[in-house]
């Protein structure tokens, strides 16, 4: 009986990173992917197609705004089929990096098919039982479908199906005001659909800073999106070929007619087909339980990415894969560190965050300072016509404890704060760093200066300056 060094289940980023490193280091590695292509949800249904779609929507939006820049242009006409073709072209271009032959060249045995555990050290794939010393589960997640009566019969779209649409819906109902829901809702509104977002929580993006999400919500409404928060869809019906969302908001009810429904109400881990009980792997509703070394309850079996949480981001799966490589390949006891985890919601303007929000910091009893600076006061943002949004910093003991940026290219800008937190840099060091002018990155220096200037111009400092100038020639 041959026993492989490492068997990896799941061909998304977590599985690909782990298998490529282990294979190139000379281990006997098997990579199993249920679908017929590698790349996972991010490449085929998530990050890549959504950002490609968002770019097309941005072009449509800029065309409408052309007059603001002194350019005359007509109302854009969206060919959703052509947009979809472009999405597919980008996916296929990136897919080349995930060619199975590339990984086979690293010494990885790539197999396609569904894997099921038959014991703690064995899995069954396409009728063949494979045995391994260690395993990695990286099977990702899928859309969670709420149990709304009539939804299944009415039909709906998810992130797995919407990128195949070729006809623009006149009216689109979006169930969920999280990142996926808002990104796609704004894009389709910019393409020309009438979009209604329905969110059960009392605000959009509930895990983000409420001050910043409140501003984003108003900006989205100004673009024409209808957003109902604190609202639940109780049932869906179809009448005369029209889908009706029957909703409740507190004590009142309303009916929202739509042509298509997009469900973006969260994610659920892909664990059902794995027969984890036969491997002794504990799983909860949120996913597979792992320790700080990414080991499951069966210590020779590791898990990473969406299937294990706690953050459903591609960059988190890649980071966790690195921790697994240290533990499973090099046998070096490395633990995860979630102190500095950035994430981005790719609306326009983008919303990026790292570290603690103001509320989280106060809940922890920290003595904090809050710094704010608006993009309307950043010269480059004004020059580009993107002066919406703000930066908000949570400062603790002279260092950044958290940062939220709502503004142009926030997903790029956040990384200065990520590095500052990772290296535990003082805000005075950020202020002292020369930031090129005119750039959007000026917002970092201007924000921290709003804290430091209060100290600089304090009465005590003013008194000290007067005495220095009296005593010294």
TrEMBL record:
NAD(+) binds at residues 176-183, 199, 266. Keywords: Disulfide bond, FAD, Flavoprotein, NAD, NADP, Nucleotide-binding, Oxidoreductase, Pyruvate, Redox-active center. The keyword Nucleotide-binding applies. Disulfide bonds join 42-47. Residues 5-321 form the FAD/NAD(P)-binding domain. Gene3D superfamilies: 3.30.390.30, FAD/NAD(P)-binding domain. Pfam families: Pyr_redox_2, Pyr_redox_dim. PROSITE patterns: PYRIDINE_REDOX_1 (PS00076). Binds 1 FAD per subunit. FAD binds at residues 51, 139-141, 306. Residues 341-443 form the Pyridine nucleotide-disulphide oxidoreductase dimerisation domain. GO terms for molecular function: flavin adenine dinucleotide binding; NAD(P)H dehydrogenase (quinone) activity; oxidoreductase activity, acting on a sulfur group of donors, NAD(P) as acceptor. Belongs to the class-I pyridine nucleotide-disulfide oxidoreductase family. This is Pyruvate/2-oxoglutarate dehydrogenase complex dihydrolipoamide dehydrogenase (E3) component. It comes from Natronocella acetinitrilica.
